[in-house]
Amino acid sequence: MTTLTPVLTKNWDQADSFTREAYERNGGYASLRTALGMEPSAIVDAVKDSGLRGRGGAGFPTGMKWGFLAQGTGKPTYLVVNADESEPGTCKDIPLMMADPHVLVEGVIISSFAIGAHHAFIYVRGEVLHVIRRLQEAVKEAYEAGYLGSNILGSGFDLELVVHSGAGAYICGEETALLDSLEGFRGQPRLKPPFPAVAGLYGGPTVVNNVESIASVPSIVGKGADWFASMGTEKSKGFGIFSLSGHVTRPGQYEAPLGITLRELLDMAGGVREGHELKFWTPGGSSTPIFTAEHLDVPLDFESVGAAGSMLGTRALQIFDETTCVLRAVLRWTEFYAHESCGKCTPCREGTYWLKQMLKRLEKGQGGEEDLTTLNDIADNILGRSFCALGDGATSPIHSSIKYFREEYLRHFEHGGCPFDTAKSTKWGA
Amino acid sequence: MTTFLGTPGSGNPNGPGNLHFEAGEPYDVETRQRLEQDAKDIISRYPQTRSALLPMLHLVQSIDGRITEQGVNFCAAMLDITPAQVTGVATFYTQYKRKPMGTYHVGVCINTLCAVLGGDQIWEELSEHVGVGHDETTEDGKISLERLECNAACDFAPVMMVNWEFFDNQTPDSAKELVDDLRSGKDVAPTRGAAKLCSFKDASRVLAGFADGRAHEGLQAGPESLRGVELAKEKGWEAP
């Protein structure tokens, strides 16, 4: 049996956990002192050896990303933290920054030292006022303690850290769109290559990492790469925050080694809400193909989820029971992608709009089986045909819902509308 | 060209005005000076000037309650770019508003998970109760409503936001009571946030990067955020 392994969430139950005083009381900023006594390259090696893979969804090895940074470009190197958490279902970074912003700040300082950055940014979505307050205060406290600014703790290392609020655009979670946004432009993705490691912020070599990835760095430095790698699976090492939401008895944040299963997590969370059964779920947000009850025992690591036809993504486990209409869920996600498509690439801009129009019609029962072929066809023509993964994500609910729930689409056509009672799916419904 | 007639902006006597934003009340000398000082503060945070644009647009909203033509022109002048370049950015992001929002800007999450758990019903009942729709404001200027996409609080669904503060685990009745309280001038506290809501304009100033000294207020974490930690303690589970 897999058990929980609280590291990042460990001190969240202390009422003042967001203060520097509490963070230091719990051992915080000790890793920073250790790191400043190390060779920067040794920190990069430790992160490589730990096996840490990006916690923002894509799962790219963090240390390898750092190792790709272009050298000798004559331009400054930057670290940018992607705190634009907006993927539907994903709700781990926001509580982390609200409860323990200092672990992120410490991670930023250590990571910047490791990669030679003297200017770092936390790009946080603008719709989370109190989280922004906590980040601003944590950065202020870190400056006051001499952890930021000039000659940090006498090491000779200088670092400026800026908390930068976005303004409401899911696309800015895509790393190159985020960089354009941070430069003061519309948040639209860039063609890659060049990757940010070569030409990122202001054209300089740039590392863009997720909040949880950077927040994992202090513990790797403090306790060692081997300690981190002792958790998780062979290729998906370490721990991660799993976010359970929806029709579950005790929704919330559960920090566990990668490779835990939904069955195990549901047991911990009291199961699907009483009197109901699991119908479908997302392993890692709405951009990851949905799973069903047959996937309860899939180890939630990058390889196993991929082999089962989806993606680990952000470990955003959205649970839906049998009262939920799949078509309604897919329509709503599709409306989201159509709304959030930045408009740069035609397949995504037009395709998501077409999908939305079709699904609205199908939900009313106006359609036939041939429409499902058309839906799949449109999705096929979006997938892989745009600069970034937003359009790809939009196709995940389409393809996977038709694969697992074709009959349910057909029932809408036979019924002349949605056969479900939406009142039963609500939190106050039966 | 008739298409330029009756357009929102009218602040520029030599041109058609800004097609996207209203002119706005002209800044008085004191406001203008304060804005310029704030803008310089913002610009100084960044290696390159233009990076200041998003925070500066939040700053404009902290004065005007939405983006205005004069705000666009102010940003353009401070950053040495054109009003068209500023407009192109301001129209891209949903937090930048084209009409005055209420003192309390109320959002209801209608993305899939919240919608299914009751967000749709909350939206319908609340919108009818308040009498305005998406991105519309009540006549008294107190309340505006917005259909929100996912706000990263799914374990607290159905979720609402007021001036970007969290209101967790909402119901149609709690939503209506919340808005009634706001309209009647009662102090309202978010579920996870400051001890008392601030105005949309004051919130915008924090987003522009000017701290309001309220970070210490409120919970460190909601009950849902603690579920795993508490279970681990109860069972004696720890990381190695």
UniProtKB/TrEMBL annotation, chain B:
Superkingdom to which the source organism belongs: Bacteria
Matches recorded under InterPro entries: NuoE-like, NuoE_dom, NuoE_N, Thioredoxin-like_sf
Record key words, sorted: 2Fe-2S, Iron, Iron-sulfur, Metal-binding
Essential cofactor(s): [2Fe-2S] cluster
Region annotated Disordered, chain positions: 1-22
Keyword set includes Transmembrane: no
CDD domains to which the protein is assigned, alphabetical: TRX_Fd_NuoE (cd03064)
Pfam family, one: 2Fe-2S_thioredx
Family named by the database record: Belongs to the complex I 24 kDa subunit family.
UniProt name for this protein: NADH dehydrogenase subunit E
Organism per entry: Actinocorallia longicatena
Lineage, opening ranks: Bacteria, Bacillati, Actinomycetota, Actinomycetes, Streptosporangiales
